[in-house]
Amino acid sequence: MNIDRRRALALLGMGAAAPAAAEAAGVGGGVAFNHGVASGDPLQDRVILWTRITPERPGGEIAFRWSLDPVDRRAGGGKRGEGTTGPDRDYTVKVDVGGLQPGRAYTFRFDAVGVTSPTGKTRTLPVGPTKDVVLAVATCSLYPNGYFNAYGAIAALPRVDAVLHLGDYIYEYGGPGSYGMDSKVAGERPHDPPHECLSLADYRRRHAQYKSDQQLQAAHARAPWIVVWDDHETANDSWKGGAQNHQPDTEGDWNARKAAAIRAYFEWMPIREPAGGGFAINRSFDFGDVVSVFMLETRLTARDQQLTYEKDLPKTPNAADLATFRTRLNDPSRKMMSPAQEAWLGDGLKASVGSGRAWQLLGNEVVMARLFTPPVRKTLGEAAYARAVKDLPEDVTSRLTRMDQAAALDLPYGLDMWDGYPADRQRLYGLIKEARANCVVVSGDSHAFWANELYDAREGGRRVAVEFGATGITSPGGGDHLKTVPVGEMFARHNREVVFSDQAAKGFVLLILTKRDVTAKLIKVSTITDRAYRSEVLRTFHATRGAEGVSALSAARAPAAARRQGRRRL
């Protein structure tokens, strides 16, 4: 399908609202809705509505009105309300609208100082027997690295019941030479602010920049979003006590930076904020009798500091070094999730299965599968390897050398993933097995597509779940600079749990779930450096539920319900 930004926006009837010359209470001049509208965290009877009102001259409070109307125009069901916003929330607006009917589609908008916002579409969750559920899964959008064409493709979908965003919605980097600034389009999309985000004002400006993108606005206006952060909403490779990209000596207190970043996140995202504050945003959503979605927080509440090969293993380790490293890696006290979140998840999985829901889906920030590093040189052979690396820059060939070193030691590919916390992963698998869940995991962070089968480390390697990893919207993947090396194919060949991987494509995952089947379409866009693009299905994978858990993945033709998923619109 050929799509451009104008067509995606036209499908939603979107356009920027013109500033008004009227006065707002306490604010001089006009206002505009420069950042679109959004909805999120849908339940059976309520949904979050969001916007941001931009004053011409900030300073005081702005009064606004909101309205929500059923798409089907049947009598009743419309809602109206009003409120105020101001500089203490960066002029963002968030309304938790209750008293809605389950499984009903709505449109919504805001008004302030004589200006009307763009119109958004949203939907409450269904109750009881449900034919199917369609979810778009997105992650990792680096603004300078390319146009958000994949968001435009989500906006243009004929049907999507909700968008699951698995984190790295923004990136904290900034300044010349920073991440993404070598892109062909970085000159017109530089970071704002033009430095790394550290303060509340910095993170607010970065969120504002991202939501100025009209393709992202269109995707937000298309359907409700269910979101969780990963690391770059705060800083790279964050954990409960710090981050790889945070230096206390020059960048101040980590807890202050973390609090500022999360405050901006809650202001700017259509998410229901946790009662009493804090970072515990694990929560669940039930889509009729088809699927329960559990969103996991594995960054800021409990994660122990990552091990790294650079600091925790000598460059030329001996047997004792390796034994010590493996003992630390497998330490059962090392955590991704807190005991409270584990208990919440275990109870939720059992309740979902007990209620008769077909699927239990984990919205998860980082790849869960075991990913051992493939031996690149050995796999290609010396002659093919020499041809493949002949014209690659030194930093890329150095990366391949490090991969070969890790492969020779039979070590995991990434320690910031679940591979860095194998005991905690095993505990999570125990929760899935105890509940007898048919579990689907969706994962972000890796900037690559994955179709994986997850196996228990015990009991002869019983299959526990299937996993679909979403590639980046724009963030560079391992294959971007390794076009001559089939990295994805090597991962699949070298790892039992990897069925398929593509390390270069940009796009998202479209999930279609019925009572019996789950179908995952890995949808890629043709380019992120041209506003005109095509979207196409790269691969399709299919699994069925069963009394003993989810089946193995197949590339079989999608079932009829999945092929018909485009017939109903919000």
From TrEMBL:
Domain Phospholipase D N-terminal: 35-124
Family annotation (InterPro entries): Metallo-depent_PP-like, PhoD-like_MPP, PhoD-like_sf, PhoD_N, Phospholipid_Metab_Enz, TAT_signal
PROSITE patterns attached to this UniProt entry: TAT
The keyword Signal appears for this protein: yes
Domain of life per record: Bacteria
Residue ranges annotated for the PhoD-like phosphatase metallophosphatase domain, each copy included: 135-522
Pfam assignment, any one: PhoD_N
CDD domains named among the record's database cross-references: MPP_PhoD (cd07389)
Keyword Glycoprotein: no
Record key words, sorted: Signal
Signal sequence residues: 1-24
Name by which UniProt lists this protein: Alkaline phosphatase
Lineage: Bacteria, Pseudomonadati, Pseudomonadota, Alphaproteobacteria, Caulobacterales
